[in-house]
Every structure is written in C-alpha cells, then in structure tokens.
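Appendix B: complex inputs.
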Amino acid sequence: GSVSDMLSRPKPWSKLTQKGREPFIRMQLWLNGELGQGVLPVQGQQQGPVLHSATSLQDALQQGCVSSESTPKTSASCSPAPESPMSSSESVKSLTELVQQPCPTIETSKEGKPPESSDPPASDSQPTTPLPLSGHSALSIQELVAMSPELDTYGITKRVKEVLTDNNLGQRLFGETILGLTQGSVSDLLARPKPWHKLSLKGREPFVRMQLWLNDPNNVEKLMDMKRLEKKAYMKRRHSSVSDSQPCEPPSVGIDYSQGASPQPQHQLKKPRVVLAPEEKEALKRAYQQKPYPSPKTIEELATQLNLKTSTVINWFHNYRSRIRRELFIEEIQAGSQGQAGASDSPSARSGRAAPSSEGDSCDGVEATEAEEPGATKSQGGPADMATAPADREEATQPAEKAKAQPLSSGTPAQDDREDAGRPRPLPEGPAAAPAPVPNLAARAAGEDAATSATAPAPEAPGAARAGPAERSSALPSTSAPARRPSSLQSLFGLPEAAGARDNPVRKKKAANLNSIIHRLEKAASREEPIEWEF
DNA sequence: TTGCAGTCAATATC
DNA sequence: GATATTGACTGCAA
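Resulting structure:
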C-alpha cells in the first residue's frame, strides 16, 4: 500500500522528511542498477540481471544533489566531483571497497587538511570538518547510511574503544580525524551509543564511519601516523613560538583575530559557561520528577526561584530528558546483551527493556522506576524516540509495572493540567513511579504541576519490557536465506544479521508471517521456480 | 511553538 | 593530558 501510494503520488523532495526521503533514495539506488547490484546483491544472484532505467532520475539525483541534500556536510561531493559521484560501477566499487576492504580513511580524511606538518593540525582550534571518507566516497557515506543494515552500535563502540585504548589513541584524534566530531561528542557517543533504530540518518553516520574504520585493516596505523604528524606539528609550533621570544598568544582559543578586534575583548565577550550548583540541580531534578514537561509558567517560576535564566532552565529540561532517554537506551542495551549472553551481536538493536535502574551520574537523581503511561493512547512520543519505535513503547511496560501505574492515573487522566497535552510523554523516570518528595523551592515551582502529577500519565520507558532475547532472535528468520538483501548489505559491513523485531504478539505474528514469506522465498530461490505470492 | 537529535565546547574529573 | 560531563546551540519535525 505504501509503495503504491508512493509510486502514484510521490511527494516533492522538499516536502519530504528525512525518513520520507529514504524510500526515494532506495529507489534511486535500485534504479541505478549497478549500484543496486553492488550494494544489494541478492545472494546467489550477484550476476543476475540488473535493471537499468530511469537515468532521468539518476540525473536528477546527481544534479539536484539528492543525496547530499540530506547531508549538507558533504555537499561538495554533489558538484560534478572528480569521481563522478553516483554514477556507475565506480561508485559501486567504491562503496564496496569502502566497507569491505581497507578503507582509505586517513589519508583521504586529510584532504581538506593537508597533513603537512607545517599546517597546524587539528589540535588547533578547528577540529571541524575532517570528513574522513575519501573524496570519491563522500557521497557514498550517505548512501551507506541510508542503505545500511541495522548496525550494532553498542558493539561498534565497544570495539572502537578497545582499539583506541589498546593502541593508546585518543578520542580527540579519532573524533576529529575519523568522525568529524569533537572529543566530547566522541566520548559521549562511545559511552552512550543509541540503538540503531533510534538514530536518525545523521545520527547513524558516525556509526557507519566507525564501522568502516573498524573494517580498515590499517586503521590504527593510519591514526598513529596522524598522531605522529600532529605531535610533530605541535613541537614545531611550540619551538617556533618559543624562539620567537614573544610567546605568541594562545593560538588556541579559536578566536578569529581577523575580525578586527583584538583577542582580548573578544575573550571578555565570551559568555561564561553557566555551571549549576548541586542544589540547583537537585531542585531541577525534583521539579522534573514532578513535571518532566513543565509549563512556561513553571519554568519561569523555577528560574526565578533558582535565580537562573529561563533559557537555562529550559535547556536543562531538554538536556535532562534527552540524557535520561539515552541512559535508558544503554540500560536496554546492556540488559539485552546480558539477557542473551552470547547471542551477542546486536544488543543495541534489541532494546530489550530491562528493569530500570538508577541512572548514571550524568542523569542522577533518576532513580525512580519508570511508570507506564496507563491507558494512554500513546499517541504522543518524542519524534525520534517514539516515532521510531512506537510499538516498543506501546508494549513497554511490565505487567507489574502497569499494575502499579494504573491506579495512579487511571482515574483522572484528564486531570493533567494540560501542559502535557499533546506532548511527548515524559520519559523514564517519573513521579508516578517514585514520587519523590518535593520539599523545597522546586517543589513549589512545580507545585501546580505536582498537584496533578500524581494523576498525570506517568513517564514511560522508551522501550520497556519486550520479549526475551531468545524470543527476539527467533523473531527473524534465519539468515541463510538466499534472497535477503539486507544480509548482503550486512555482509558489506562485515556484520552479522541485524536484530529485528521486538516482540509483542502483533510483532510476533508479523514476524511469523515474514518468516513464512522468507521461507517460501528461500525455497523458491533454491528451486528456481516461480511462485505466486499470497501474503 | 515546542520538543528533540545531534553537536560543540567549556569545564570537571580521572 | 585524556576523558567525562553538561549547558548551550542549531536545525528539523510535528
């Protein structure tokens, strides 16, 4: 149905969301026969016929920079790039090479940043824009991301961490060189990877890059080279600045002296970073527990009482919600991998909801067990979070939890002060589950909400209780199927079968149906006999 | 307008 | 010095 709709009434590109664009990218790649052959070979049919049509679309793609539009970072690759992006077998080759063979990350990553030692390397202020992948593949990374099978983000980060620590390579270097991210982001990413299915296209990119990097047999060597180079440059700079007698002002700071003003005033202009005092944080956390989505009024009051800017309070709530969400992902992952001990591969994909636990330090104060959103229509949900896995949320809660949560809200769901109406449900922890006392000012600020919080739908876990690992893994058919495109892609990434369905009865049914379809496909493929489909 | 994802970058901690 | 934390920001989607 979706296909029919899409084929008969395609939306203009500009009107499409990222997700909405994905099918078109896929179609384009498919239409672009050779690419399709290279990227999604049907097992056992690699030499099979390839469709060659729609060059017009392909042209459009090239000229209109379809791919790059989704990734401004690489827009350069859109222009008739040296390697004629997107066309023909070359890109196929590069794609394949990228993921399967040593990928040319390092040298190429420095294209925009020539490795000459004279060039103050990344260590200087501008960690930006590395963009690791080779020029000819800059476009391909997007394709890869779009086409990528479900990657085991947790496993990838784990391996990356291992490699980095084993070889004494820093996150900064790795981030700037390979991922195009700063140290903090890398640290965050490595420590708290989100499960693949919760990531946006953009969010997936670093993981694809990491995977590619891991696949590169020379990855360490190359990074070591970079390290040496950086060191050399640093020494050189240092040496020259010392010999210049006048210790040159901190070249760092990243201030553009070019703007006329001297660095000094600029420095002064710099907004000092707000650091919240522990009491303030505590107060905010308590307020959060009362009301994860406070009204502007509440925010205002909180800000006043805590003597903070409202924007700070707003930011704090945003960040806190978001970070709590991630903490939960981690728990899911860990629970998932524990639960399935050995079945290894894609814990991140599984999102098995484990018993909630206390949050990590970054989100401390979140000890509360999450409660279910009882009887809720579940219509709401964070864009990425729920939108990507609404079913997960739907089935999220353990019965026991449900039972607990139910009474809290069932009676007066409508009593919510409406602040939350139509909003994404609050996350993980929440008042309902662990009604923390709110003794102080924050409590008062949240008071108006607090009154209702007991009856308001309680925060919900993003992906609570799902079936056990075994069940999960059985939800998808075996990978031996000869005709499974994703498998081929996975093989490109050197990955095992992706995790699939999270379970609930409906999903199980679907999975069973899928199994049967695939089974028939397999049989058909092996017998090479036509089948009639009746799904 | 609001919430979120993703990220930066200052700062804290190890 | 490397890594972790976290307030702020940007861009996007609903």
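The two ends of chain A are 13 Å apart (CA to CA).
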